[in-house]
């Protein structure tokens, strides 16, 4: 998954998923310009395997993270020296997630993503909506729904790994709930802020409270 080669940056002229555009407006009489990107809304799921008290995450190569890592290593040109910037620098731990691109309920999309990426067949009754938030407010302003899914080993029906036909390469990983806060705050581990939020939410609202 991290055997990356022949990396280069080219101009984006057309995309099915990312649509850049510019907004012209006036704010308190001052003319302004703001550049934005249109992308899909999304769902993301904190999967809790209660059989073994672990969180089920995904790990995958993220080109945008890799390119930023390359820049921090002095690779700012159109091509990246992959010997200097190895592929593992682009690997990111994330919650199971997916874009809203189907004509069905968002919880149904979350259910499908859990099966596709992590291999668990989760009844909709085991999916709890945590909250709905705006992501990328400076650039995209899209909605992202957070869900909490309680699963058991008995619900595991496949290895997961994502949709191979779409080129997805996903590794399913497990993090002990007991160690999850340490994991979340470890700056050496690449992860998005949504994962940190979900772990903190669980420990605030779901974790068993000790009686003092």
Automatic annotation (TrEMBL):
<comment type="function">
    <text>Hydrolyzes UDP-glucose to glucose 1-phosphate and UMP and ADP-ribose to ribose 5-phosphate and AMP. The physiological substrate is probably UDP-glucose. Poor activity on other substrates such as ADP-glucose, CDP-glucose, GDP-glucose and GDP-mannose.</text>
</comment>
<keyword id="KW-0460">Magnesium</keyword>
<dbReference type="InterPro" id="IPR015797">
    <property type="entry name" value="NUDIX_hydrolase-like_dom_sf"/>
</dbReference>
<dbReference type="GO" id="GO:0046872">
    <property type="term" value="F:metal ion binding"/>
</dbReference>
<protein>
    <recommendedName>
        <fullName>Uridine diphosphate glucose pyrophosphatase NUDT14</fullName>
        <ecNumber>3.6.1.45</ecNumber>
    </recommendedName>
</protein>
<keyword id="KW-0378">Hydrolase</keyword>
<dbReference type="InterPro" id="IPR004385">
    <property type="entry name" value="NDP_pyrophosphatase"/>
</dbReference>
<dbReference type="GO" id="GO:0006753">
    <property type="term" value="P:nucleoside phosphate metabolic process"/>
</dbReference>
<keyword id="KW-0963">Cytoplasm</keyword>
<dbReference type="GO" id="GO:0005737">
    <property type="term" value="C:cytoplasm"/>
</dbReference>
<dbReference type="GO" id="GO:0019693">
    <property type="term" value="P:ribose phosphate metabolic process"/>
</dbReference>
<dbReference type="GO" id="GO:0008768">
    <property type="term" value="F:UDP-sugar diphosphatase activity"/>
</dbReference>
<comment type="subunit">
    <text>Homodimer.</text>
</comment>
